[in-house]
Amino acid sequence: xxxxxxxxxxxxxxxxxxxxxxxxxxxxxxxxxxxxxxxxxxxxxxxxxxxxxxxxxxxxxxxxxxxxxxxxxxxxxxxxxxxxxxxxxxxxxxxxxxxxxxxxxxxxxxxx
Length: 112
What we know:
Elements: H1 16-34, E1 42-45, H2 49-62, E2 66-69, H3 71-82, H4 87-101, H5 106-110
Parallel strand pairs: 1-2
Protein name: MULE transposase domain-containing protein
């Protein structure tokens, strides 16, 4: 099987330094437990600038190829941008967002 690390941290302030500290702690625990450096190809993060900034700082060290926005925050951002668009249009957009979200390949996603 594969190991998929999931971590939750309670931090005092929402700053890039705090997020960097949390990620470095995760890296240290991973190395202690598994004896190798943590490498993450895909990372899902909040839409806020501070966690993304911390991930970008550690991107090369962690081997991150893609930083994904949390799906909830993605939908919330799209809905904010749609503003006063008619509800039927919002429903259509939501339908395609969810189809893209559950796609199992790049080709399938591009169909939507």
